[in-house]
Each structure stands twice: as structure tokens, then as C-alpha cells.
User: Which sequence fits this backbone?
């Protein structure tokens, strides 16, 4: 019995880590946008565009390397992101409206470009493969679950947050970036280019969100399917709130969501049930669970902080979703 | 004399409205140009659309039937927009309303009219319940309502799928993947084949909301909160309480829309998985954004979007992909957002040599 539980736990862990990579990447993209005060609700669209361009590059443009396909996906999302940045940062229009437009337009564009590609698999030679030095990881169940993952997962979990944390909190440039998100007027007054920094980080963040989409089709499900993001973009936006806009907490929040997803998959595959609920009903209930848990994890800390002294609302960059007009400074 | 753009310090509702509309039209024109690029003739698409809508009584009735759920969701969104609260979850509230109405309809034995009233009340409660958590989070803990309302859409879809494939599934037949149909429907409007009296509900509701915001204290307070919540709090308005009430009513309106769809639309008398709402919340949001939270505007924009939606469905049989509608919605939103900004600029002629830093040009 114990061995059975341990095995189930390991298999959930093993699939939760790569499942969360998508969320880690997308949420990191969101974090970059929001740290400079740009609310980018278009994540679903960016994931879709990133995924479809990665698929197209492999299937039609003769790209064989998974790294190059990832780059193509990121470029596609970056182009969409720069259109969004023109609207939000240069023209300074309403970020909520344009974000939803990007979500709709991106999903529409990706689905349109992906027509006729449904289910056509990407050759395994173009996929990312798990790191396994000399078979050392696969020789042990625990090591395999924890460490035998593809390089993108390592990048997303360790390298990206570390670099981001260092740049944001330990460099002068990072301080300027955060200032643009907290108080663009002050950043402007000391000579930082608010428009330039917002534009650059919006495009960079969009490219990383696009990498999330490209990663999906280059590893977990190596084929195009319509509406590929299936809510992951919205969950990523929630994860950033949970993470209080900090890079390593994003990893923790994403892992929680990924664990829910793989718990759901494992429970369905093994027909787990409860004394008062059949396996079929459990399946339906479990499909809701990831979204309910996401909702809880952003509400509960906020409510708890409210009971304490500190107001949670101060965690968000103060100028989030506010266009900056120098004339109104 | 070089003309340049200068930012206005005042806002004018009429000017903003016109500018927003111009923006939306520009979005549609861009969409037409994109259709040309994909090798379609936009004139044919337009005439086909007009023909689908106005060519027959069926088309006009189809638009009227579509408009009920879209208008109900739009009115809910527009109400919350009055206090700058973005309710993106009206699709979930719509489904929750339909879920409650359906549950009562197929499980309770009651005379027809009483059952209809119970279902209507149930749908209102369902829609309000579906937004109560986001409302409390926003009002008391400052949690952004955009994400929380949206996450609940996914939960609502799963709930309806569960109901139609699980606990309320019609077990009389092996093939059906839906609940039993509800036993009662709203009467049809005399002279129409498919439009129920539910069509009048959003129209009446728009008038009521318009009157509330025009001449009651509550309406004025809500607009004050929308304008400046801090000032409203200083003026003695209980802001968190108002936010909760407005969000609950917003959800309740969308929920009632679920009841109207379930009992009014032809062929929609049962919950059939996620397909019960054809993204009505999304269309409703577009309508509210277009109308800029003006209730008469919601009706006009809502009928327009419903006609477009209906034409889109009709044209799918002619090979126009459903994704194009998404794209067009996106372009309309871009047009509205840019139009809003443009309304705050004016062209001025600069006589003296201009040495001040240039302002980024913004044109609609």
C-alpha cells in the first residue's frame, strides 16, 4: 500500500514539473510586463501564437533544431507583443481593452494558422529531450522524477528566476525598471525613458510567454491543437498575483498549479474514487480543482494579509495598468 | 504653421462616444481589408451578411434570439463598468444562472407559471453567487477582479459539463449528452416563430438601469465611485459595500440571461455541456466596451454585435472560419481603445518654432 502511494506521488511529481514549466515561463513573461506597469491580459493569445509558429517552423519551414523552433515561436509572440506595446505604451490606450484584444486576436490568428495542422505530430528529432547524464538519473525513481527533465525546465525553474531576481533587485538598471512600474513620473524625472523601458520589457515579456506556447508543442504534446492554451495564460496571470510579483515565488505558484493538473490526470487515469463519489464524478470535480485552487491561493493570502497589519494591495506595482502621460505629471 | 496634437485636460462624454464609435468602425474596416488579404471579397461577405440578417424573417428573428443572452451579459458588464470594475466572468455567471434554473426546472414539481418564477429567481441567485467571491475579494482585500471572475468561467463550464454528462444526465437515451429538457418555456411573442417574450427583458432592464443612474442617489454614488473611489469614500459613501452590491447585481443580470436562454431560445431547453453558452459573455463584454457603459448604447451596440454574430454563424456554412469572428472582435476592441485615447487630443497649430519635446502623434 505504501509503495503504491509512493509510486503515485512520484509519478505526479514527475509530470507536475514539466506541466508547470509552461506556467513558469508564461508567468515570468507576465511578471516582466507588470513590473514596468503594463497589464498584459493577452497571454492566451501569446501562448497560441508562440505554439503555432514553433509548429509551422518545424513542419513547413524545415527547422529541425528544437532550440531554433523555440526561437521562432518566441519571435512570433514578440511581434504580437510589440503591436500590443505600440497600443499600450506609445499610444497609451486602455490596457485592459487591448489585452483582451490581444487574447482574442492571438487565439484567432493561431487557430487560423493552425487549421489543417490538427494532430499532425512533430518528429521526435525536433523535440526537447530529458537531461540524463550517462543514465544516472533514470537509474533511480526519485532522481528520475526530480531531475530527468528537459533543458527548458532547468532554465525556467533555476536560471530565469535567478537572472531576473539579480537584474531586478541587485542592479541599477533593475531599480530603474522597478521605478518605471511603481512611479513612472519619478523615473522620468531622473532621466529614465519610461516609454523605452516599458516597450522593451513588454516585448521581452511577450516573447517569454510565447516560449511557454512553443515549449508545449516541443515537449508535452508534440502537435498543434486549437485553443492550445486552455486557460494557462489566465492561470499565469493569477500565479503572478499569488507570487506577489517576485521571480522565485512564481516558480512555487506554478508548481502548485502543475501539481493539481497532474493529480487530476493521475486520478482520472487510475479511476480513483471516494466512498461517497464515483470515479466518474471525481473526474468532473477534479477538472474544476486547478482553477478553484488558483482562485484560493490568490484570495487567501490577500485575506490573511488584511487581517494582519500589512495591506496586500501594496505588493502590486503601483502604476500597474496606468498609462503614463508626462503632461499630467 | 505646423499642426500638432495636444492633450486635452477635460473629457467630454459625447466626444468620447463618437470617437469610440469611429474607432470601432475603423476596426471593422481593417477587418474587411484583412478579408481581402485572405482572398475573400469583402463586398460579397458584407452582402451575404446583410442577406443572412435582413433577407428573411428567419434572419431577423435569429438576431433577436441571439441578442437576449448577449444583451443580458452586456448589461451586467456595463453596470460594473460604471464603477470601473471589470467583470470578465459574465459567461460563468450566465452558465451558473442557467444551471440553477435547469436544476429547479427538471427536479421540482410545480404548476408551470410558479416553476418559471422559481427558475427565474434561482437563476438570479445563481448568477449572484457565482460572483460573490470575486466581489468580496475586490471590495475587502483589493484582489484584482479581472482574474478572479475569469477563473470562475472555467469552473462554470466544468460544472455544466458535469451536470449534463453526470448527475443530471438524461438517462432515457444512451446517446444524449445533455440534461433532460426543462418542462416549461416562455411564451412566444405573437406573430413570431422563435422569439420569446424574454426579448423584452433586456430592453426593460436597460431602461430601468438608465433611470436609476439618471435620477437616483444610488446611481450617482456608483458613478462617483467610478470617477474617484477615494473621493467617494471621503464623501461618506460605503465603497466596499457598493462594490459588492453592484458586482452581485451584475452577476445576477447575467444569471437571469441564463434563465431567458434556457426557457426562451429555441432548442436550448437543456444543458448540453460547454456548448450552452456560445461565448455570450465575451460578446457581451465587447458590447459593453463599445457602448462605454451607457445603457441605451448597450442596446444599440448589442443589436449590432448580435447581427454580426448571427451573420458569422450563417457564413460559417460558406467557409468563413469562426476564428475570424474572434479576430474581428479583437480589432473592434483595438479601435475602441484607440478611439478613447484620440478623444483626449486635439489638433493645434503652432506658430512659433516649437522647441518643446514632441508629443507622440496619436491619430484614430
Assistant:
Amino acid at each position: 500500500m505504501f509503495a503504491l502511494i509512493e509510486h503515485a506521488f512520484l509519478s505526479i511529481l514527475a509530470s507536475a514539473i514539466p506541466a508547470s514549466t509552461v506556467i513558469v515561463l508564461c508567468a515570468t513573461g507576465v511578471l516582466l510586463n507588470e513590473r514596468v506597469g503594463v497589464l498584459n491580459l493577452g497571454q492566451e493569445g501569446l501562448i497560441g501564437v508562440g505554439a503555432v509558429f514553433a509548429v509551422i517552423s518545424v513542419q513547413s519551414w524545415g527547422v529541425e533544431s528544437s532550440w531554433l523552433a523555440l526561437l521562432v515561436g518566441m519571435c512570433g509572440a514578440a511581434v504580437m507583443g510589440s503591436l500590443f506595446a505600440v497600443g499600450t505604451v506609445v499610444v497609451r490606450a486602455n490596457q485592459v481593452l487591448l489585452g483582451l484584444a490581444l487574447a482574442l486576436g492571438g487565439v484567432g490568428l493561431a487557430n487560423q494558422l493552425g487549421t489543417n495542422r490538427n494532430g499532425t505530430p512533430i518528429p521526435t528529432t525536433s523535440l526537447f529531450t530529458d537531461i540524463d547524464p550517462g543514465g544516472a538519473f533514470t537509474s533511480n525513481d526519485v532522481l528520475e522524477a526530480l531531475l530527468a527533465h528537459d533543458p527548458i525546465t532547468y532554465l525556467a525553474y533555476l536560471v530565469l528566476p535567478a537572472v531576473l531576481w539579480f537584474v531586478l533587485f541587485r542592479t541599477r538598471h533593475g531599480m530603474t525598471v522597478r521605478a518605471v512600474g511603481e512611479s513612472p513620473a519619478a523615473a522620468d524625472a531622473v532621466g529614465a525613458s519610461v516609454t523605452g523601458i516599458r516597450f522593451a520589457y513588454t516585448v521581452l515579456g511577450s516573447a517569454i510567454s510565447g516560449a511557454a506556447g512553443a515549449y508545449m508543442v516541443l515537449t508535452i504534446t508534440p502537435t498543434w491543437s486549437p485553443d492550445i492554451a486552455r486557460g494557462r495564460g489566465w492561470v499565469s496571470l493569477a500565479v503572478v498575483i499569488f507570487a506577489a510579483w517576485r521571480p522565485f515565488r512564481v516558480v512555487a505558484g506554478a508548481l502548485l498549479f502543475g501539481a493539481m493538473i497532474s493529480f487530476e490526470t493521475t486520478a482520472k487515469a487510475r479511476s480513483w474514487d471516494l466512498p461517497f463519489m464515483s470515479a466518474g464524478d471525481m473526474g468532473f470535480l477534479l477538472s474544476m480543482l486547478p482553477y478553484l485552487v488558483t482562485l484560493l491561493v490568490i484570495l487567501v493570502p490577500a485575506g490573511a494579509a488584511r487581517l494582519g497589519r500589512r495591506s496586500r494591495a501594496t505588493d502590486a506595482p503601483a502604476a500597474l495598468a496606468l498609462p503614463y502621460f508626462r503632461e499630467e505629471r | 504653421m505646423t499642426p500638432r496634437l495636444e492633450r486635452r485636460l477635460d473629457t467630454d462624454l459625447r466626444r468620447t462616444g463618437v470617437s469610440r464609435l469611429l474607432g470601432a468602425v475603423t476596426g471593422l474596416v481593417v477587418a474587411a481589408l484583412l478579408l481581402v488579404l485572405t482572398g475573400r471579397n469583402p463586398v460579397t461577405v458584407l452582402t451575404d451578411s446583410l442577406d443572412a440578417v435582413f433577407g428573411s424573417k428567419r434572419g431577423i428573428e435569429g438576431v433577436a434570439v441571439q441578442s437576449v443572452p448577449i444583451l443580458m451579459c452586456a448589461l451586467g458588464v456595463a453596470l460594473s463598468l460604471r464603477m470601473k470594475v471589470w467583470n470578465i466572468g459574465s459567461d460563468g455567471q450566465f452558465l451558473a444562472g442557467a444551471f440553477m434554473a435547469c436544476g429547479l426546472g427538471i427536479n421540482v414539481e410545480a404548476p408551470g407559471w410558479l416553476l418559471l418564477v422559481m427558475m427565474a429567481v434561482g437563476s438570479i441567485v445563481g448568477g449572484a453567487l457565482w460572483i460573490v467571491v470575486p466581489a468580496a475579494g475586490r471590495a475587502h482585500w483589493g484582489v484584482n477582479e479581472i482574474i478572479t471572475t475569469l477563473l470562475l468561467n472555467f469552473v462554470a463550464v466544468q460544472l455544466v459539463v458535469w451536470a449534463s454528462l453526470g448527475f443530471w444526465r438524461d438517462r432515457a437515451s444512451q446517446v444524449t449528452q445533455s440534461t433532460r429538457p426543462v418542462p416549461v418555456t416562455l411564451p412566444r411573442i405573437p406573430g413570431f416563430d422563435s422569439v420569446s417574450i424574454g426579448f423584452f427583458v433586456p430592453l426593460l432592464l436597460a431602461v430601468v438601469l438608465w433611470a436609476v443612474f439618471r435620477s437616483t442617489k444610488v446611481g450617482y454614488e456608483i458613478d462617483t465611485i467610478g470617477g474617484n473611489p477615494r473621493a467617494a469614500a471621503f464623501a461618506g459613501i460605503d465603497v466596499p459595500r457598493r462594490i459588492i452590491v453592484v458586482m452581485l447585481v451584475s452577476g445576477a443580470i447575467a444569471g437571469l440571461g441564463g434563465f431567458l436562454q434556457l426557457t426562451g431560445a429555441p432548442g436550448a431547453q437543456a444543458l448540453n455541456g460547454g456548448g450552452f453558452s456560445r461565448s455570450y459573455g465575451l460578446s457581451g463584454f465587447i458590447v459593453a466596451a463599445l457602448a462605454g457603459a451607457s445603457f441605451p448604447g448597450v442596446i444599440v451596440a448589442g443589436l449590432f454585435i448580435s447581427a454580426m454574430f448571427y451573420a458569422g454563424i450563417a457564413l460559417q456554412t460558406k467557409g468563413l472560419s469562426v476564428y475570424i469572428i474572434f479576430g474581428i472582435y479583437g480589432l473592434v476592441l483595438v479601435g475602441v481603445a484607440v478611439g478613447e485615447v484620440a478623444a483626449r487630443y486635439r489638433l493645434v497649430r503652432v506658430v512659433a518654432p516649437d522647441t518643446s519635446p514632441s508629443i507622440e502623434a496619436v491619430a484614430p
Q: What stands out?
A: The mean pLDDT of chain A is 88. Chain A has twelve helices and no strands. Chain A touches chain B through 53 residues (CB under 8 Å).
